Amino acid sequence: MKKTKYLNPYLGGVLLGLVLLASNFISGRGLGASGAIKSTIVAGVQTVAPRHAEKALFYKEYSDTHPGNPMNSWLVYEMLGAIVGGFLSGVVAKRLKFKVEHSPKITSRKRLIMALIGGILFGYGAQLAEAAPAALL
What we know:
By secondary structure, this protein is an all-alpha fold. It is built from six helices and no strands.
């Protein structure tokens, strides 16, 4: 059986950092998934509870600075491309598996719950960091 060779993770990290640096230099923004999630949440709230979206400061500020459909954002397309591209890459390389990797000390369920909590906290922190410069002005 032939062993699959993968990219060195340190080199991958450096390359990813260079892509992020180029994104900031070219577009003035990073490649954060939090922007795509924010657009998705705003679109969802505008659809389900339009009056709330008009009155709540969070949604009103977003709509004022991002006119038009929130789902028509390059960050949304980028995240969709990353998800679809990762899925297709796994299919083509015959590495697509639906399993949860975790330590033998915890269960799959606990691992998924902790990942969800970590993702929520990370997204919340990203929104705080985005709002911080405006609060300092």
